[in-house]
Write a structure and sequence with these properties.
The structure is a homodimer. By secondary structure, chain A is an alpha+beta fold. The first copy, chain A, has 18 helices and eleven strands. In chain A, the strands form two sheets. The first copy, chain A, has a six-stranded mixed sheet with strand order 1-2-6-3-5-4, with helices on both faces. The first copy, chain A, has a five-stranded mixed sheet with strand order 7-11-8-10-9, sandwiched between helices. In chain A, helix 2 (about 75-85) packs across helix 8 (about 200-210), helix 4 packs parallel to helix 9 (about 225-240) and helix 13 (about 370-390) packs antiparallel against helix 15 (about 410-420). Chain A is globular.
Chain lengths: ~475, ~475
Amino acid sequence: MTTPHVTTQPSAAKAAVALLALALATAAFAAPEVHEFTLGNGLKVLVKPDRRAPVVVSQVWYKVGSSYETEGLTGISHMLEHMMFKGTESLGPGKFSRIVAAEGGRENAFTGQDYTAYFQSLASDRLEVSLRLEADRMANLLLRDEDFIKEREVVTEERRLRTEDQPESLTYETFQAMAYQTSPYRHPVIGWMSDIEHYSLDDLKGWYRRWYAPNNATLVVVGDVDPPAVRALAERYFGPLKPAAVQSPKPRPEVEQVGLRRVVVEAPAKLPYLLFGYKAPTAATRPEPWEPYALDVLAAILGGDESSRLQSRLVRGEEVAADVGVSYDPYDRMTTLFTISAVPAQGRSMDDLEAGVVEEVRRLREEPVLAAELDKVKTQVVAADVYQLDSVFAQAMRLGRLETVGLGWRTADEYVPRVRAVTPEQVQAVARKYLREEALTMARLKPLPLSSPVARASAPAAIEGGRHAR
Amino acid sequence: MTTPHVTTQPSAAKAAVALLALALATAAFAAPEVHEFTLGNGLKVLVKPDRRAPVVVSQVWYKVGSSYETEGLTGISHMLEHMMFKGTESLGPGKFSRIVAAEGGRENAFTGQDYTAYFQSLASDRLEVSLRLEADRMANLLLRDEDFIKEREVVTEERRLRTEDQPESLTYETFQAMAYQTSPYRHPVIGWMSDIEHYSLDDLKGWYRRWYAPNNATLVVVGDVDPPAVRALAERYFGPLKPAAVQSPKPRPEVEQVGLRRVVVEAPAKLPYLLFGYKAPTAATRPEPWEPYALDVLAAILGGDESSRLQSRLVRGEEVAADVGVSYDPYDRMTTLFTISAVPAQGRSMDDLEAGVVEEVRRLREEPVLAAELDKVKTQVVAADVYQLDSVFAQAMRLGRLETVGLGWRTADEYVPRVRAVTPEQVQAVARKYLREEALTMARLKPLPLSSPVARASAPAAIEGGRHAR
């Protein structure tokens, strides 16, 4: 079973703006109403009808993830996600997945910094299967020692393949731990190895009892369904569950960073790797409301697509970089990182690469972006957003995520107008305010020879592609 | 009330080797037997008669300190130490201290990474007062909301004066948080400000119930006392207390560091400040048994006294440093830092200073220390140890500390022979093994103008001297 976990690792998601015209054409589909209601036990339910195909996506989102964890128990949310497939009082281990498969559905789960979520994609007339099974494991999970011991091995192996043996992941993990001083975002979603090795069954039982309850969850259903019918099913299966006294975790705000940080990771690797991370606000940390959207546009200007600045100037122009990526998520629950990643071109030094990135950041701080460039980028960003929402799965993701981080699903409707309203002055303002050296952490992967024992134990290439992606 | 907290911050302790001849002369006093016994409820009692003066030091050591804490609750051990002076079911707030003072005694407490300890110094015929009061507050502490709210203010103010407004402390705190990736030593003993501000009375009650019990404590009595009489008193006052089910915290070993780390702290300050920290083992982490002692000798070679290498070469010779310090503690409970701190001489750059330190470390790795230098340093180290033990307080500290970190008080007897046995090859071996760039974290304090608001709110100079010292 693959139960991948989501992190904020730089991804190529922003590059998915290819089908521009098609995406814009589908905008009409993205607008239907969301039906929201809350059961007596506190379960929030969001239903969004989308009748383009006779399918339905059902997701259950829990307000718990790695940023709710403390030292010694890092990764426990992810471990519990694995255990959620081990059966309930009425259902044997692995039975859940077999039932969904027998119904022709797909299902899986993912754990992030801010959430743990479970989903099924089914023919729309099979939604009941999903709700029955999810309600069952929300309350009746059986946590057995034998399953636990085996699954803990699976998770340590997952960590070994995806982090220990992946030099870029290892670098990213160390980078994150250095960039955040007090925020729980400093811990990896999968957890530190020693913590994984020392989980007890009681830890899992405690975590399950503490966070898995209808009043700490959101059910999201998107597809070819009628809201009243979904409501009836939700009442039938989730309605009888008891709410729990969910206590919020202690706030752990990030201490203000007041100086540059640099970290080197020496590991067997083929290529060096460079990371820049600037502390940045998100919609959830309540900065000026336009700031997260200006940062989002800024990320696209720097690294959105082939015509973005880092691509056109560092990869193609100066040929100092073989690859670059920019990542920023306006919907993280807490102060986040505006991240730039880069791999040097063959024969070019890390110092040259770093200087190239620094120069592009300097320009953004000092020179306002031209209206034409800004308009082009905004069109891309809006298109990517609209394109993404062509998928019922992505629509459900958006709603569940926004609800779970505390912004509320209606924030989804603000995205396009907020992006469209970003001005050149705002782009420059956020560059000046946030892309400052005093708030910067830099990491460098310094490759060691691949013949070392660590490299020989490395994972097959197939794992690499799926790393930390959903 | 001053309840200072102990950290591993570089201190001038090593410099206290002045009275060499006198110290060696007192060696005869340092040898008397330690009487050890354990009460039925698990309280370990160590009694060391020392009849040179009619005084007694009584200390109660709890196996809890900042390294037992997790995020969100950092500093709670220190906060609880403050609350331990707020009275019990039978004793009003502040009464404890007034009784001890009325008996002509002194008393205080200290919290460190590995322990929380309370002590009284009294005329030896007043020992009963101390044991009666300590036993009372081990079990019957009253944690009242009004005291708590006030005392939390006291602790936030303490943090403001000793850390926020002290640029070197602030730099050290950030340095520590960067050097340790997963170890709880990354947190300051006093706790992060946000955590202090969010303590609840329930947090304190929970911490008190979890750790304050006879089976998690050691009573150390040193002075003009008879062991059987101390035993009778201990039985009388501590004997009736119930043991608790003390659960060990999760292990949180430090992840292996595989590359250089650098951090800059920009803060209003008069002078820059440079810190080097190399990851190093301690007697408690079970390296080769001679390694911690070779590192201790190495620390003295580098920075022990006026004739040490950094003093003679960087301060006096090249005049690149105005001040240097070296700190290493072989008795920390977990992997620790071998720390070098330095302030540049007027007109000399931080780069020059850094290069000077790097050069001295390189020499230690590459050239064996000469027998004459080693002998001189060993004499100093042994003398400092013996000198320190001239104080009954220091003797009690040593016993309590070793017992509390799990090494056992008998380790004290090994110190001098272990130091005497260190060879030039061993000094070079630990320099090569541990003083490596891949295991190094460097921090620089970059002074901002003192006219900024932070500097104006700064503490009076008198606080500075006492900062983080015991």
